[in-house]
Task: inverse folding
């Protein structure tokens, strides 16, 4: 979602941050959130970029962009879970609490194959 779209085939951070925005995204078991806070004079840019991203993401999605984002997620997993004491404990707890066919059995961050 941050790698660009059909009409803006570059990353989303640079133009919005260049206009003074703060933006990011997060995912949990029930939803994914994308947010941005922009100055009022950048509202038109932010709305255009969001509408283009929501309407024209797939035509611009390439294997290279997908691989890049997968690496971002894998790095997040390594930093936030695998390289911390007891970092994998939540995964063990969810695995013990929920059966394998339940969506909460797995951490949102995913598994490393």
Result:
């Amino acid at each position: 979602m941050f790698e660009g779209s059909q009409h803006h085939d570059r990353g989303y951070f640079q133009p919005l941050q260049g206009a003074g925005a703060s933006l990011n995204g997060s995912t949990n078991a029930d939803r994914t959130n994308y947010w941005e806070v922009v100055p009022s004079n950048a509202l038109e840019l932010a709305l255009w970029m969001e509408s283009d991203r929501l309407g024209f993401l797939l035509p611009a999605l390439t294997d290279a962009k997908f691989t890049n984002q997968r690496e971002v997620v894998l790095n997040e997993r390594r930093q936030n879970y695998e390289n911390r004491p007891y970092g994998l404990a939540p995964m063990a707890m969810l695995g013990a609490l929920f059966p394998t066919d339940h969506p909460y059995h797995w951490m949102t961050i995913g598994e490393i194959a």
